[in-house]
Each structure stands twice: as C-alpha cells, then as structure tokens.
Amino acid sequence: MKTGQTHLFIPGPTNIPEPVRQAMNVPMQDMRAPDFGDLTLGLFADLKRVFRTETGQVFLFPGSGTGAWEAAITNTLNPGDKVLMARFGQFSHLWVEMAQRLGLDVEVVDVPWGAGCPVKEFSRRLGADKHGQIKAVFVTHNETATGVTSDVAGVRRALDECMHDALLFVDGVSSIASIDFRMDDWGVDLAVTGSQKGLMLPAGLGILAVSEKAMEASKAATMRRAYFEFSDMVNLNATGYFPYTPPTQLFHGLRRSLDRIFAEGLDNVIARHHRLAEGVRRGVQAWGLHLVAESPAFYSDTVSAIRVPRDVDAREVIRIGYERYNISFGTGLAQLAGKVFRIGHLGDLNEGMCLTALSLAELSLAAAGAKVEFGAGVAAAQDWYAENAPAARMNIAAE
C-alpha cells in the first residue's frame, strides 16, 4: 500500500494547487444564464495578458492543445498550401503529421533531437521563396520530448528580414505561462496552449490566441471545419457564451489559476521557473549525466530530458521511481525511449519539490544500475537555490 504523497514530475498534466481544485468543486450551472458572461468574459481578457497580446483574440475550445492545433490550421489555411515546419522532437513530429493529414504541402526541416528550431535554415528557405508560396511557418516553442526551447523571436526576425508575409504559428503548450512568451512583440499569428501545464488545471481546454492578421485570413480559408469554426465562436464569445456546452468547472478553476499567476506576477512566475529549472540542471550535472538539449541556449525551464548511462534502461528508472518511491517521471518518447527520463518542473512548484525530485531520482537511478553519488545532485541544487533565493515570496497558497 502506498502511503503519503504521490509525487508528480511529468511535464504535464502538472500539479493542481488545492485552491484551484476547490474552485472547480461547484454545482453545475446554466450555461445560458444571463450572468454566465460574468465568469467567462474576464477569462478571455486575462488570457490575453498571459499571451501578452492586446489585439489578438483568445478562443477556449473544450479539448486539448492538439485540438487547438487543428483549429489554428483549419481556420486559416487552404488545402495544398505550402507550410514550413521543423521536426526535432515527438511533439513537433506530431504537428507535422497533423498538417500532412489535413492536406497541407509540408516542407519539413529535420533537425537532430536536442537542437531547436533552425532559424538560419528557415531564413534561407524564406529568402528563396520569391513568389510567397510558403503560407505559414510553424515553430514548437518548447519541445516537451527533448527539453528544448526555440527562438520564436528569431523566426519573426527572419520573416521580417525576408519581407515574407507567411503566418507564424507557435505551439506554446509547455511554455506559455511558464517561459517568456510575447505574442504581439514577436508577431505571432496563432499561439496554442493547453490547460494542463503552466495554467495548473486538468486537461480539457485547448486555448488559442489569434492575431488580427490570422482572423482576416480565416475569412478566406476553405479548409473543412465545423466544431472548430472561428466565426461561430466569435459571435457568441463576444457576450460570454459558446456554440456548444462549455466545461464550466474548468472555467472556475481557470479563474482561480489566473488569479494566482497575477498575484505572483507573470514576470515573477517566469523568473521562478528559470530559477527552479537551473537547480535541477545543476543537479543533473553533478550526477555526471547530460541533458538531451545540445547547449544551454536550448535549455527548457519547464522540463529537463536526462540521458541515462548506456548500460541503464531509463524505463527501469521510471518504473522503480513509481513502484518504490511514489514518484512519476516522464518517459522518453519515440527514438528516446529507454534512453531518457524527464523531470517536469513547471506550474505550481517550489524549491522543496525540485529537491524531492532530485533525491528520488538519485535513488531510482542507483537502483537501476547507474553509478550516482547519493546527495550529489541535491547538494548542487541546494547551493544554487541558496545563492539565488528570492528576496521575498508572496504567500498565495492560503487563499
């Protein structure tokens, strides 16, 4: 029998703060009531603050980030349109696969898993596209499978320097509300996230922010769609309603989650994620192990993908952690299966939780056959946290 707390260190779904969980424990309510907009209109406005957009429009689709991917594509592009995408992890691969299945002409740049979006190669191909055949460029901001964060602003610069008019799509599922993201400043046209990561909710909401340029493109897009139709949403969202039954309990949780983010301050949330992630990375380095991310420029502040020694099966590390120590680590996906385990460090997180992840990872690694000095990773992280402690921490837990 398992006792005590089960520790969740996968990169999503993430831990749900108790006040957020309690906020969802409400009776069902009338989604057509005259005061329903009192709940929903504020969510649309505050999500724009999280995306950092003043002019974009936010949509909330019952579903997941994958559903929001599909909504973004089908509302703004036409069958046969050429799009430029990079594949450097499992989630960027799945996005490529979706685009192909939806009938787009996908120009894929394959990059080693561990590298980020190839900005220079994108720039070269955009510069060579003299007739504007490329209608959209897709960037996975944070590749959750490899723990790699890409330079979205750099892709925007490449588009601007080439004077290219392609739409810029960004998958921010494991970055938005955790890693710096600036929709307006970076000229992002469609930005996707989900409820289950930085927003600290159960899975169930695909969240999509759409620029004015993309909204205009949606008026001429001919790809087939029904459930994900922007115009249906626009007409009803303006007064706080939806063209189908919305997940009201998730909306109540989202309200509390956004309140927590703004109480801490979005910049402080982002800084906290960096500080905590760096402690984890220093712990990994102290073990003598390496991240999948090829260089510090690519390090993700929401998930670390850790390569195990060649004679160790990462699946055993994960199994031992779960069965012996009540902890869930993320598994290696696709070509990284058995070679990598992942520590998710995003959402409702603090130093003590990161130290727990490192200490139980040490136990699990050792039991799986890795030569790890007990306490080495924990001590390295402690040194970092001691040197970089926040001056003061706002108490937002006791709401």
Summarize the topology:
Blueprint: E1 7-9, H1 18-23, H2 37-51, E2 57-62, H3 65-76, E3 82-87, H4 90-101, E4 105-110, H5 119-128, E5 134-140, E6 142-143, E7 148-149, H6 152-161, E8 167-171, E9 190-194, E10 205-210, H7 212-218, H8 230-237, H9 248-264, H10 266-287, E11 290-291, E12 303-307, H11 314-325, E13 327-331, E14 340-344, H12 351-367, H13 376-387
Parallel strand pairs: 1-13, 3-4, 3-5, 5-8, 8-9
Antiparallel strand pairs: 2-10, 6-7, 9-10, 11-12, 12-14, 13-14
Helix pairs in contact: 2-9, 5-6, 9-10, 10-12, 10-13, 11-12, 12-13
The CATH homologous superfamily name of the largest domain equals Type I PLP-dependent aspartate aminotransferase-like (Major domain)
The helix-and-strand class reads alpha/beta
In the CATH hierarchy, the architecture of the largest domain is 3-Layer(aba) Sandwich
- Tally of contiguous helical segments: 13
Shape: globular
User: What is the ordering of alpha helices and beta strands?
Assistant: EHHEHEHEHEEEHEEEHHHHEEHEEHH
Strand order of the largest sheet: 2-10-9-8-5-3-4
**Largest sheet data:** 7 strands, mixed
Q: Tell me what portion of residues adopts beta-strand conformation.
A: 15-25%
Helix content: 40-55%
**CATH-defined fold name of the largest domain:** Aspartate Aminotransferase, domain 2
Q: What is the C-level CATH assignment of the largest domain? A: Alpha Beta
Gyration radius from CA atoms, angstroms: 21 Å
Q: Which whole number gives the mean pLDDT?
A: 96
- Unreliable runs: none
**Measured distance between first and last alpha carbons:** 32 Å
Domain Aminotransferase class V: 49-327
Cofactor: pyridoxal 5'-phosphate
GO molecular function, one term: alanine-glyoxylate transaminase activity
Modified residues (N6-(pyridoxal phosphate)lysine): 197
